[in-house]
Amino acid sequence: MEPLFMEPVFQEKIWGGDSLQTEFGFELPSENIGEDWAISAHPHGVSTIQNGPFKGQTLDQLWQEHQELFGNQHGDAFPLLVKILDAADDLSVQVHPDDAYALKHEGEFGKTECWYIIDAKPGAQIIYGHTARTREELAQMIREERWDDLFNKVTVKKGDFFYVPSGTIHAIGAGIMILETQQSSDTTYRVYDYDRKDDQGNTRELHIEQSVDVTTVPARDTTLSISETKHGKSSVITYLQTEFFNVYEWQVHGTLQLNQQAPYTLATVTEGYGKLVVEDKTYELTMGTSFILPNEIKNWELQGEATLIASEPGEMA
Q: Which residue ranges does the record assign to the Mannose-6-phosphate isomerase cupin domain (predicted)?
């Protein structure tokens, strides 16, 4: 069985730039590409398999027709989505619903996500959480546009990691590139968008009522228990283990041998280069390479000097 390598799906955004080309070497269709949907079965951007017996097929098709690849994890939709985001400008301040609200109002999963900071310009910031103590205070602060009082700002650097559960007010700031692991959902409620206009001179839609409905109040503590396991000169950092997904950093310095821990594993190279060895077959890895290790692959070896962010489905995925 071969790994499943993914063709990137690029999304143009008002806040996007060209770093996915200058830093990762992708050929971009425009100068305002904000997102690479690296591993996705979501209908708004479906990945296509690049190699092997399933070359040319889409990930959503494999999920429906070849459940054996995913350990027979029966479900209506592939549960995870991995993106690389290039924020040349500030993203809107937003919040995502949980499963119950999203399924009722949007007909899809809710959106819990997490961010690995691939790179950040000096002083770059994210908005992460809020100060309101009650839902009524939240609504009032939004109504009065008391943004500086409401939003918590955090300065970030390369290698930082953030957990962003549904209900968390958040925004990625200008000058930041991240690897995002999330539930397979495209539901976003905008709280604030800096009053900016699109190419037609229109402001983007805000979703104040929904935002107040779904925001967790008061903001929850998302302190993480991050651990590192050494494998010679290489290492595995465990960032997160939740009901939706488990997320790891694979630091490869020479070689790193790993065994399957879940029905399938997703991975993206965020820095460096190297090789993936599966059953004596070798695959080249460069920045931006994304792949799935399906259920039949029980162990593999990584070689080279590289950083990969990997994820697995959680118990509820």
A: 237-312
